[in-house]
């Protein structure tokens, strides 16, 4: 059909009888209206609007503007559930979240966040909404689960801000994302460690030594292979970690980027490491240091049966396997490790956790000083 030139833009009648409007934009590109119009006057109205936008220096290409408006409409309809689930799925697919972390987040979402907030639109979540959820719905939840759920909600809403779905996060309760332990972890004593190692099966005693003296996580211990051990320099290479999921095991990078590291093995542990390599590890470079009896990784549940029996034999039923890492970090701090050295040895992304162990070491030093004073007093009395 014939296209008619106007003072601004073009209008043409289509074979269908409807009208199409277009114009040459400031970018010297021809832009069509996103829809066709039933009447010519509607085309003229659309062109007049576009011209005003250009004159006011507010113009954006119609296609780009339509995309922005569609995104705004989606954002207005986005709920906590739809956004949180998409954020979680993208985190896993892009490798930002480890499988166990994603599983933990999924449980927290389904148990604590989505039942109350899932159907609320992101734009309608206010500080009052969050406060009511935290102080009422979550009031009787265990402190650690409560703080983890709050921290997860904060992370989700902060990401919504970055995605420009909301202007600011409404999750602003000071201190709510931190769980304070009711009881401090009591590190294992050296005599307790020796007794626990002796009570473990011979092929598993080294797991206790490495978790303690090298401050390794269990997933790091279970994925160690012969190629990761360098006896000549007395080092372990921590390059991978195994996660035990409901559907099986999954090997991936350590918990944090800083988790990929080389750890010096204390000299007194090296003989045990060398004996273990000779007695229990195949010669293949990829052979696991601690394989399961049927092959593959030693599942944490299998280790726990032996661990539980060993810890109870020394009266430490409270001691978790992960507490060995805490013990090792505290011992390193007592040996004079700096914050940076602890952070590197433990594979922490930030110095905060390392500082906790330094504080613990200082507290132990005060306890030792007090005992020295008691010894001096007794000597004087005699």
TrEMBL record:
Residues in Tyr recombinase domain copies: 183-370
Domain Core-binding (CB): residue ranges: 78-161
Identify the InterPro entries for this entry.
CB, DNA_brk_join_enz, Integrase-like_cat_sf, Integrase_catalytic, Integrase_recombinase_N, Integrase_SAM-like_N, Phage_Integrase, Phage_L5_Integrase_N
Annotated GO MF terms: DNA binding
Q: Which Pfam families match?
A: Integrase_N_phage, Phage_int_SAM_3, Phage_integrase
Record bears the keyword DNA-binding: yes
Alphabetical keyword list? DNA integration, DNA recombination, DNA-binding
- PROSITE patterns annotated for this entry? CB, TYR_RECOMBINASE
Q: What is any one GO biological process for this UniProt entry? A: DNA integration
The entry assigns this protein to a family as follows: Belongs to the 'phage' integrase family.
Q: What is the protein name for this chain?
A: Site-specific integrase
